[in-house]
Amino acid sequence: MTEVIKFGTDGWRALIADQFTFANVERIAYAVGLYVKDKYHKGADYKVPVLIGYDTRFLADKFAERAAQVLMEMGVPVKLASRDVPTPCIAWATQHEPTAGAIHITASHNPPEYCGIKYIPEYAGPATDEISDKMLSYLAHTPDFIPYSKEEVKHFDPQPPYLAALSEFVNMKKIGNAGLRVGYDALYSTSRGYLDHILKQWGVNVKSLHDWRDPLFGGGMPEPKKQFLRYLIGMVKNEKMDVGLATDGDADRFAIIDDLGNYLSPNQLLCLLTRHMVKNRKQTGSIVRTVATTHLLDRLGELYGCDIIETPVGFKFIGEEMRRGDILIGGEESGGLSVKGHIPEKDGILANLLIIEMIAYEEKPLSQIWEELQEEVGMQFHFLRGDLMLTMSTQKGLIDRLTNDPPKEIGGVKVTKVGRKDGLKLYFDDYNWMLIRPSGTEPLVRLYFEGTSLEQVERIAKDFNLQAQRIVDELDGGSAKVDSKSREVKNGGTAGLLKAPVS
Description:
Blueprint: E1 12-15, H1 22-41, E2 50-54, H2 60-73, E3 78-81, H3 87-96, E4 102-105, E5 114-120, H4 129-139, E6 155-156, H5 159-169, H6 172-177, E7 181-185, H7 195-201, E8 205-209, H8 230-238, E9 243-247, E10 254-257, E11 263-264, H9 266-279, E12 286-290, H10 296-304, E13 308-311, H11 315-324, E14 327-331, E15 337-339, H12 348-362, H13 366-377, E16 382-389, H14 392-404, E17 409-410, E18 413-414, E19 417-419, E20 424-427, E21 433-438, E22 444-451, H15 454-476, H16 488-491
Parallel strand pairs: 2-3, 2-4, 3-6, 7-8, 7-9, 12-13, 12-14
Antiparallel strand pairs: 1-5, 4-5, 9-10, 10-11, 14-15, 16-22, 17-18, 19-20, 20-21, 21-22
Helix pairs in contact: 1-2, 1-4, 9-10, 9-12, 14-15
């Protein structure tokens, strides 16, 4: 069954009881054990432990315990979290003391029927491709029967030192004195008892929603998108709160509702926090973003004198840059970010705290802070997202055709540069671009469009859909159609979120 285990941008995820089984968890734990014994324990006087964590999903705690038992049987010491734990917390714990990294059982924001597993090295960030490839090589040599220990597993609580570190990193005293009213939707996630706890500890008035464990996530998704935050939006508006906070299932991503009840996109939040890091925290460094993330960050880099580093999609690439350079902030349009002085792993709890810290510094409503950022930028930005629903074979044919012969003009606008860092990125100029990127795990082609004119962005999106349909017709003899979901490019929920009026 090892052929079904393939590591994506951050670990492996699959359906519980289908591919995600105790047998496959045992195999991955065994592969981690082989890696740890070779990298950390060979010739060492002291065997550093592997930390084990898990999220709130069905059987996640049992899967975590089994992984711990496999390692114990291999002679690898372990420490298992005493309750479900956020990914950034277990990641932070790997470098708080000498460890051989951590195994974390989580499927992040995926639907409730999924579970997942990832290995976090001792540097507290996502495993690099080199480490993942090494794990897969060990996975190919696991025995058919993997024994596991029946002894009691040693437990530990990573919450207190992690929250203590955040209290030193963020100006919690300033936050506590700001008199803010905060709404918080835990979305049944691991951040409950973390984000709300630290805020209350410092005297912040917090009202919480969905702050208990529910493996079915209330019948929804543990994903902090607008459609899953309607209760939080309603509470912020009806009770006239200053801000609404949320995280995804494992708390490595975050969402914010402003004082007017508006959902702020991850692209907006990245820009707000970049400004906060420079203006209020007086810090410098480069800005790291993925190929799919807004170029409004590039504009801010121009204004603040910050270099821009572009990476493929996946926080592991951002984490690598943060470990080897002077990085002010690193983030992606899917909602993950980290900042200078913190771990090279996305942290939704820290991101939420930094937004509140920004409000406390500015002493203004969040909606007003966003308006002021727009005025500073001096140009308009419009961001659209959509997907093309295609079979895997048609998807490959389309991508191959576009890669070998990229369009020279779309929507009447000439393509001036072609980027191939991840998918195909077509530049019309520095601030107008589109990205075509295959999902890799689903029969989808991801589409991203951004530019300084909404009319032009929509025209480019419409024309690209027509060009894509012509290629699909040639590939499939006219039998296949670009799915209607692609039309969400024009009317989708992220349309026009980055609007900065010309000053």
